[in-house]
Structures are given as C-alpha cells and as structure tokens.
Prior knowledge:
The protein is of the alpha+beta class. It has 4 domains: about 5-140, Immunoglobulins (Immunoglobulin-like), CATH 2.60.40; about 150-280, Immunoglobulin-like (Sandwich), CATH 2.60.40.2550; about 285-380; about 390-495, no CATH class. Helices cover about 15% and strands about 40% of the residues. α5 (about 355-375) packs antiparallel against α6.
Amino acid sequence: MNKCFIIVLLSLITALNAASSPALQAYLTSATFNNPSKGPYIETYISIIGNTVKFVKNSKGKFQGDVDIAIKFSLGDEIKNAHKYTLSSPETEDTTKGYPNFIDQQRFSLANGKYTMEISIADKNNPSVPPFINSMPVEINFTNDNVSISDIQLLETYSKSVNPTMITKSGYDLIPYVSDFFPENIKQIKFYTEIYNAKKILGEGQKMLVSYSIETNQSNTKLNNFSAFSKQNTNEVNSVLGEFNIETLPSGNYNVVVEVKNKENQIQAIKKYPFQRKNKPTQFSFDDLKSIDINSTFVKSIKNIDTLHDYIRSLRPISSSSEVQYEENQMKGKDLLQAQQFFYNFWKSRNEVHPEVAWHEYNEEVKKVNNEFGTFGLKGYDTDRGRVYLQYGTPNIRARYEHEPSAWPYEIWQYDALVDKTQLFTNPNNKQSNKKFVFANSDLSTNRYILIHSTAKGEIYNAIWTERLYTHEFSTQNMDVEKIPDNIYDNIIDTFNNPR
C-alpha cells in the first residue's frame, strides 16, 4: 500500500518584551531530511530581525549584534542532540541606515522518533531582556519500505555551489526563506525537497514522474496555472528544485504539493507545505456591490431573505468594522439582490478561488456554535463564547468550573496562538501567543456566559475580574473588604494561570 508521509513544518515568531528596549524578534522554521548512508537529520532555519537587536561596536570599530542560541532535542527525559552557540550579525559602519537581518542554519542528526525541540534565543548585548524559551514537538519518520519525501524547504534564493557548505544540497547553495507568509512584494515561491527509496522500490534506472503544484488549503483543489512536472530516473536520492511565479496568486491559504508517481502513473508518495499569500486584496466597496453579478454563483439559490439575513448576521464575528456597519444596515431592508451581492462579495474577498467552499466550512462552525452556545432568545454566534470561538477558532484548552465554592459557573479558554479572523490578511507570523478569555454565567436560567476578562489585544480587560465571579457569599455590590478571607482568590488565580 502506498503511504503518504506528511510531517508538519514548524514556524514561530518570538517576541521578547522589555520596558527599556524593543522586543527581539526572530523567525524559525525547520525541515527533516534523510541521508541514506548516515541516517535522518533535521535542519533549523532562524532569521533574526536586525532592528530588534542591540548593536555594539566590535574590536574593528564596526557595529554588530549578537544573540545566544540554545537548541536541544529530547526523547522523553533524555537529550538526544543539542547545541549552544552565538550568532553574530553582519557588520555595519553606520547604524543610521538601519540594522541588517541575519540568518542561521543548523543541522542535527536524529534517529526516527517523536522529539521535543526546545529553543532559547537571547540578546547577548542586552541581558536585561529575558530570553525567549519555547518547546514544540518534532517527528522524524523515514523508512526503507516505501518511496518517501523529505520536508519541503522554502527558499529565498538558490545558486550553483562553488564551495560546498552547510547550506549546500544536490550541488546548490540554498538560502532558506524563514517564514510561511508571502506578502505582495514577494513575486515567487521557491522550494527544495528530496525523494528517497525510489531506486529500491521502483527499480534501478526506472522512470518516475515528479509533479509539483499549488492547491487551496481548505478544499485541496489544484490551481491550473500553478503546476509543473519533471521526469527523473530513480536514484538513491532524487532532488526537486522548483518555483512558481505567484504575482497573480490571490490572497489566501495554500499548499505546495509534491507528488511522486511510477511509470504506471500511480502515486508513490506525496508531501505538502502550507503557506499564506497576501496579494492586492479585494477591497470592500459599497458602491461596487451593485456591479456584482451573482447569477452564476452559489448565492443565487439563496432566495429567502430571512434565511440570508440570518447567514449575514452569523458573519459578524469575522467581519471588519465597515462590514459590520453594512450588515447592520442591511438587516433593516428587504432587498434580496443587494443582500446576495454583499454575501457573495464577503466570501469572494476571503477565498477568491472557492468562495462557496469557504462559506460552507464557516457555516459548519456556526452550526456547532449555535448548538453549543445558543441560549434563550440568542443564536450561538450572538453570544460571547460563540463570537470568540468563531473569531479566534477552537481554544487549545477549555476549562470549565461549574461548582467552584461561592462563585458563579465560569470558563477559562486558553489559546496558544491567536489569529484574529476579522483581520482579513493577517500575517500568520504575528500571532498573539498564550492568550486567555474568562467567561462567567451569572444567569443560571439562560446559561448565557458573559466575557468578563481577556488578555488578548482589543478584548475587554478587567484588573479585578476575579471579584465578579464571587457573587454568592461575597458580592462585589455589598462587599466588606475586611471580611473577605485572604485566600479567597487563590484557587481561581491558580486555575487562570494553569487552566485544566
């Protein structure tokens, strides 16, 4: 049986906040490969944003930044590989012209297994800023039983190698592109990957077809203008170096896909890498709505104005402020065509290739929200929990506390990485990290939980949110502070810091 090997590439943005200096910012991706004679290994690619690092004069009188980096890979409690080193920026004589970014690449030999990768990055010249420390899972799984493909490495540039170094593979020097976000100014996407075991499985010198393409991330639909292929003879290792011009690729979420087929056109292996494109967004314009032809679109079949109004109301958790304003005005009228035009434009602006697919996927989430969070007189998408769920997605931790002594029932939601869906073209590298929401239910008859506190940007912040929960014996309306036990809030603070 053919197997599909998909190993998720890792990406993160680090932000180290200090009152006296700007936050250090770094981007990290990684990719796993296999050397037939030496075994598997993982490469890490780090890009340090120069203007977030403190530059000082070196012994040559030039300005230079330095960061201390520590990376280790653990299997259970055992460290399998680790490296500590100092990464220095390029030298500059004039910092008024800006601070150069600098990139690092490391390689670690690791056997097959599921590891925890821990990384620490610190500004060597600014010790007042605490180091960023994070950990993430890494899986390596290369076997000899099937044709397999390495991870896909995104590239900034590539060139024929003259003097092979750490960045050299298959005769090329590969400069990594350390992100999975492609803004408007990036015109091409370039990538490298390797194919293993083709010679063993398909036979020595046999022909195979290697195709690569771009597909939509949600519906996995391949785009006609973004596909290519090459015919190769099987080797110990077959390499693939590809690129696409993405100037016309609409904004959205996509996958780079690499497939290997035998001479009978049967798929032997497949690998995908997700990325996001931002490209000249379709701006929302009220005047342009009148010119939208919806006759050949999916909204033409939505002919009940009340049903369409309900659909439009459900969009509020992911709508921009201008869209919300228009939605509210739209609810006052009975113009079916105008509502259809707005609804179609809304989804086309979010998925130009497959707006109908985007709507149906969102509507499935709305159904879940209505079922889970709907209360007397309110659809789930109109409740605080429903709005947060639709706007930010499923929380990593949803901790429920329904029987806390002296407190109203409450929930704490934790998001490890938070992306606001009202921001249509949010850079995924700018996710908010470790954000929490606290909901309280003070009306047991309706089961309606109200958002009383959050650490996310733009959300309600209440420094004394804990007091709002203790409304039985210790009401905030009539509270004698001297009579409150000293440890009344200890338990709730603990659950907030460690929701479970």
